[in-house]
Amino acid sequence: MKRHVLHIIPLLLLPLMVAWAIDAREIIENVQERYDDIEDATITFSQSVRFKVSRAEQTTEGTLFFKKPTKYRIETGERTIVTDGTTSWSWNPRNRQVIVDNYKEETHALSPEQLLLTYPKDYYSTLIGEEKLQGRDAYVLKLTPKEDNTFATSMKIWVGRDWLIRKVEITDVNGAVTTYAISEIRLDTGLPDDSFTYSIPGDAEVIDLR
User: Kindly report the CA angle at 163 between 190 and 60, in degrees rounded to 5?
Assistant: First the structure.
């Protein structure tokens, strides 16, 4: 009887061994391949910022629309940012002001479109575990910057088994923690190009930096 039990134990442990056979490098490669296949995406997310000194927390919700190669639109209650890949518009409804500028690709930016649709390349990655996230299994990776003079001192990224980023947590040099949590992702719905141009309100103050 004991001999049969000894044979069964390795079989019970096999799924656990297989689950941990993957490493951070393989996860990153799978994420990059997944995003390479995506033409457009609509992502609903929440952003929260927790400040170290005051311990105050600010939360906002938003939607990110993205279409390759460089079109995106971010809508939150505080601001709308739109680019068609040539011109960018930043609209602040509080002061009725819109800033117009030439589109600039900021490869080191920690903006939602950079964080939720690309994998940071200037960081070392380590797989630190797995967690349930909104009922889904997710890998948790810790990222540390390759350079010392970066605004983010550390990051954590949650990657679903579908190889999509589901949550990002950033700690900056001031100790503030910014978290992006994704509630819904819709892929390749055929977003029209006119979604990525902005009609300036007639009463808006326009600051043109072009």
Answer: 70
- Residue 102 · residue 90 · CB < 8 Å: no
pLDDT, tens only, 21-39: 689 999 999 998 999 999 9
Structural domains in the chain? 13-208 (2.50.20.10)
Rounded CA gap, 42 and 74, in Å?
Answer: 10
Whether 182 and 129 have beta carbons less than 8 Å apart is answered as: no
Alpha-carbon distances, residue 150 vs 35, 50, 111, 123, 173 (angstroms): 25, 19, 14, 10, 8
pLDDT, tens only, 76-120: 988 999 999 999 999 999 999 999 999 987 644 556 667 776 667
Beta-strand relationship, 97-102 and 205-208: parallel
Question: How far is it, in rounded angstroms, from Cα 123 to Cα 147?
Answer: 8
Q: β-pairing, 40-50 with 177-187?
A: antiparallel
Find out whether 96 and 204 touch, Cβ atoms under 8 Å: yes
* Closest to 85 (Cα-Cα) out of 98, 113, 104: 104
Amino acid at 45: F
Structure tokens at 171: 């700690």
